[in-house]
Amino acid sequence: MHVNMSSIAALLVTASSRLAVIAFSTRSVAPKFAARALIARQIASGPMPYDDDKMPIYALGLNIGMQISQQTDFKSLLEEDELEILMTGFSDIVKGEETVNPMEVLQKYGPSVNALLRERMEGIVERVKKDGKEYIEGFLDCNEEAEKTDSGLVYYCMKEGTGASPVVQDEVEVHYHGTLTDGTVFDSSVDRGATIKFKLGQVIKGWQEGLAMMKEGGKATLVIPPELAYGDAGSGGAVPPGATLKFEVELFKVNP
């Protein structure tokens, strides 16, 4: 779920004769170690809904929907009847069947849309943050050997390494398995079956601090609060705004 509240474009209330599209500007906050999760939820594969000659058009619709959903999770923000109204507005524009002047609608109701989304997003973010804090408390209660650093990172050693510890300038090779506090897997090199290499200084602060506490050959669990992860912005459709993240990380190699 992703609405970058700091960079929501005003609903293009311009005098342009061209139709203003409601555009949410998204700052790139994807993990620089290449999180490839597209959508957190898993969908079972089923039969194709159309014949092969029509499936390319359906695929086009899926592509548009996925791009929109990666920026803004309207399913979480809107009620069912509101989603129907949203889809009606979208359909009217695509089909050229609008019965009102789109520019007039945007000029009149654009500020209300921004206010509505901001209010609902703030409520969701605060709830997600609260759930994260409770998760961290529960994790510490259940894992006596886990330690919470001054920054708020929770570090739990699963296997002690014997090699070098990385610094931010180093390249590291790791396996990792990232989940939300509800257990949803949002990114996993383990699931992809391939380790990944990256400069430690290129990733989120929670990783920088956590991996620096590890040694080659070690494995640890990192529970990372939002301020050390993706903050109130989240990351695409995979990491909700304000989310606390849990990573199991295995450090294979440190290259200075």
Task: Describe what you observe in this structure.
Residues 1-42 have low confidence and may be disordered. Strands 1, 2, 3, 4, 5, 6 and 7 form a 7-stranded antiparallel β-sheet that branches. It is built from 6 helices and 7 strands; from the N terminus they run H-H-H-H-E-E-E-E-H-E-H-E-E. The relative contact order is 0.19. It has helices spanning 55-71, 74-77, 80-95, 102-142, 189-192, 205-212; strands at 147-148, 154-159, 171-180, 185-188, 196-199, 219-224, 245-255. The chain is α+β, with helices and mostly antiparallel strands. The longest helix has 41 residues, at 102-142.
Distance between the termini: 36 Å
The biggest beta sheet reads: 7 strands, antiparallel
Pairing-aware structural class of the strands and helices? Answer: alpha+beta
SSE pattern, N- to C-terminal? HHHHEEEEHEHEE
Strand content: 15-25%
Instruction: Please give the radius of gyration in angstroms.
Output: 22 Å
Mean pLDDT: 84
Low-confidence stretches: 1-42
What is the general shape?
elongated
Helix content: 25-40%
The count of DSSP E runs of length 2 or more, i.e. the number of strands, is: 7
| Total DSSP helices | 6
Concise account of the structure shown:
The chain is 35% helix and 17% strand. It has 6 helices and 7 strands. It has helices spanning 55-71, 74-77, 80-95, 102-142, 189-192, 205-212; strands at 147-148, 154-159, 171-180, 185-188, 196-199, 219-224, 245-255.
